[in-house]
Amino acid sequence: MEDKLLEEERQGEAVITEQEINFLNGKKLYLESYGCQMNFSDSEIVASIMGKAGYETTKNADEADVVLINTCSIRDNAEQRVRNRLKQFQKIKKDNPEKVIGILGCMAERLKSELLEEEKLVDLVAGPDAYRELPGLVSEVESGQKAVNVLLSREETYAEITPVRLDSNGVSAFISIMRGCDNMCSFCVVPFTRGRERSRDPKSIVAEAGDLFDRGYREVTLLGQNVDSYRWNLSKKGEVINLDEETVNFAQLLEKVALVNPGLRIRFSTSHPKDMTDDVLYAMAKHENICEYIHLPVQSGNSEVLKRMNRGYSREWYFNRIDAIKRIMPDSGISTDVIAGFCGETEEQHQETLSLMQAVKYDFAYMFYYSERPKTLAERKYEDDVPLEVKKRRLNEIIDLQMQHSLESNKKAVGKTFKVLVEGHSKRSKEHLCGRNTQNVMCVFPAGNLKSGDYANVKITECTAATLKGEIVE
Ligand code: SAH
Ligand code: SF4
Ligand code: F3S
Question: Which uninterrupted H or E stretch holds 192?
């Protein structure tokens, strides 16, 4: 595009659109993202909004006019990492006072103007629903003002903004289908940083998936904090809002996206055990291109702890959902999130988390020890009374058990053949490709004549706890 534009300019014949004039302004934006997939997806919206205002993204912070850090507040150490990074940028700014440093995302929303006014670490603060205002906020900073917008919205979904894919392998992409969360799990800061739950127009989701397919992408991951509560044109009680408009729930949305093209793989995250319906599982079983993989965070294996966590389900209910997955999709991969050492967790209750893991045998898990977050229900109601060493020991027991299960699960795959979507070269060797099977396990195999975006049948010959290795078969 740049070359073409310069060429046209030289010939003096170009019809320059507004966007291209901005493009010629040539300012550079450096974006760094932390936290969940949703945050990475938001950064692509930010790149798009800033792109329209004339900013080109750069991977080099030194040459950037504007540096934006998209942050996460989920655990204390996530925030500490960002603080350290901001201090590094402060040093760079000393030699380059013109550089605008901004903080976006959940930490911006949680701390509001604190990092700007009290700690003087940033020039600009923008919460997750304020990204359309970013170009204006940057201009305010450039004219010597403070720029803060942390207003949360009940409607904003950035539905019609086409994300600029950052760090993309050109094969897989995220699509945000909703924003916010109404669940109020007692440990969680997300409802405070992301605001009320709202779903995005299904037409814009299907259009984005179609556009990605046309541009060569072969896998989309639909994102929401609780995808099972996705609803379009339906009130929370299930009543139709507008009689002239279609209603769409998550199972129906999945089918719509699956029908975009059989060559486009669909994944999604995150499912909530209290809301995941059999209809979602039947939709997955019905369409070959919806991947057989469910991320179903359990958090704890003890019903009393789950109650204090305000998760809305018991151990028994969770098992009922696992049984449904195994009944409707016997080959599905299943992963989870676990928190060790939540307020009041006894040794017996911790043992119940381990016994639940033994019973489910997850293929993969994200595991954390509890980190108290300001303003959450748990912070106000319960004492963070499990000592740090005990939290860490329990977490290690959970991790050790999960490592065994991941290895067992991968060993069962040896000898089987999987359809793998090639994502690119393996990290270790140019002669090898890597890609995932439908169960979301990374497979590595000799390249043959294949390239990114191709599908390959790979027969598994060996494994580790994290990776399958194999060879291409017909
Ligand atoms: N919406 C998703 C979770 C998003 S946060 C869901 O409901 O499953 C991702 C994970 O971070 C959570 O599943 C939980 O395991 C972990 N987490 C959230 N808050 C935490 C806290 N205060 N301390 C430790 N881990 C936490
Ligand atoms: Fe947090 Fe619970 Fe919402 Fe997940 S469902 S984002 S854990 S409040
Ligand atoms: Fe972190 Fe916010 Fe995501 S707190 S996990 S970036 S929603």
Answer: helix 190-194
